[in-house]
Design a protein that fits this description.
Layout lengths: L1 H5 L12 H8 L6 H15 L2 H7 L4 H13 L5 H13 L3 H12 L1
Helix pairs in contact: 3-4, 3-6, 5-6
């Protein structure tokens, strides 16, 4: 995890609107379900550790992307949905993300 964060794998440290983060977020909209599942799995893995949660907190669009995945998957129990939900639950442990998740769900 340290190597991924220090090398800014997802581009979170580059700012909210970085091109690298946009490229990663574009994968969440891929027509290929396997790609969407793997990107949700990657975010879930990052959110499993405190350092990963801190890293992901630098890019709030990732939270919105995870919530969109959750809504797009509907009520069907897929691996993509489970990974997105797991990441959201872990990220909501951080107070700053709890508010973002709560506000997003309210619309």
């Amino acid at each position: 995890m340290s190597s991924y964060v220090s090398n800014d794998l997802i581009g979170c440290s580059q700012g909210e609107e970085s091109g690298h983060t946009s490229s990663i977020l574009a994968l969440t909209k891929s027509p290929d379900p396997a790609i969407r599942e793997q990107i949700a799995r990657l975010f879930n893995t990052f959110s499993s550790l405190a350092r990963g949660r801190s890293y992901l907190s630098e890019a709030p669009p990732i939270i919105r992307a995870l919530l969109e995945i959750l809504y797009e998957e509907g009520e069907e129990d897929t691996a993509t949905r489970r990974n997105a939900l797991g990441a959201i639950q872990k990220l909501s442990l951080r107070q700053v993300h709890y508010g973002l998740c709560y506000n997003y769900v309210q619309f």
